[in-house]
Amino acid sequence: MTLGHLDIDLLRAFATVHQAGGFSQAADILGRSQPAISLQIKRLEERVGGQVFERTSARGIPLTPTGVTLMDYARQIIALHDEAMARLTLPTFKTFVRLGILEELGNYRLPAVLHSFAKVFPDAKLQVDVKLSNRLMLDMWQGRNDIIVIAGETDVPNSFPLWSEQLVWVTSSAVPSPPREPVPLITLPDPCFYRKAAEKALSSAGQPWANVATSSTMAGIRASVIAGIGVTAMGKTEVTEGLRIMGADSGLPRLSDANVMICYRDKAFETAAKALAAHVRKSIA
Question: Within a domain: residue 112?
Fold first, then answer.
């Protein structure tokens, strides 16, 4: 059997269907029709000689073994392709760039984003502003940020996807915290995507909850949880010492994933944001 070449548009459709959780959702993100996305997946399967998605699953469209193998390569190929195209067309940035990064990123992802910025724009002067996602959006709309990294829905205009962050329930590993009702919830101020995900999951599961503490910083959230005041939802990669991920035996509902993306203020920063997004995706792959 002779395999065909891996077309970048087919790989992008494949990765987007997997990330978005369906063909219709991927069509909306890519600005295509659902039949067009289905045709792209069919062509990809013809080229690799096998199905990449299970078609008989009752929930979602999980990857086949072939799909799992291909997905690892697809992400790397897409990231390298986007980085190469952006860098080849990227003007030299020797200006002052105001970069906003969401507070929720914390200790693990923040250095990766800043490392990518330094690599992509070695001559640019950087101002970093760490705030909640909604405040970053407001600042960008009002011209106080040029590029921002936020968590939110997939249909944010002027944006490029970075990664999907798995959200988990977290409690203290230092202080015994037996299950309580209502669920004692510690959150960032509203509106916050992580808070919204926690409250929506609990409400959908019919579990009573109460906001027992609010903090404007993740440092305050971590300290409150470690002290045993309550539980919170955060990205799995951001769970640090003193915190413990709560398993299925906790009785808490599954949380939706957070879509992390780069947004840019206007057309002048589109190419820069695209290059930065490509480098970040490659560095965390």
Answer: yes
- State the pLDDT confidence band at 281, using cuts at 50, 70 and 90: confident
Q: Which range, 58-62, 119-123, 169-173, is most confident? A: 169-173
Task: State whether 54 and 132 are in the same domain.
Answer: no
Whether 206 maps to a domain, the answer reads yes
Average of per-residue pLDDT across 250-254: 91
Q: DSSP of the chain, one letter per residue? A: -PPPP--HHHHHHHHHHHHHTSHHHHHHHHT--HHHHHHHHHHHHHHHTS-SB-SS-SSS-PBPHHHHHHHHHHHHHHHHHHHHHHHHHPPP--SEEEEEEEGGGHHHHHHHHHHHHHHH-TT-EEEEEEE-HHHHHHHHHTTS-SEEEEEE-TT-SSEEEEEEEPEEEEEESSS-----SSEEEEEPSSS-HHHHHHHHHHHHTT--EEEEEE-SSHHHHHHHHHTTS-BEEEEGGG--TTEEE--GGG-PPPPPPEEEEEEESSGGGHHHHHHHHHHHHHHH-
CA–CA gap between residue 149 and residue 137 (Å, rounded)? 9
Are residues 200 and 276 both part of a single domain?
A: no
Where in the sequence is the domain holding 171, given as residue range(s)? 167-256
Confidence of residue 106 (pLDDT cuts 50, 70, 90): low
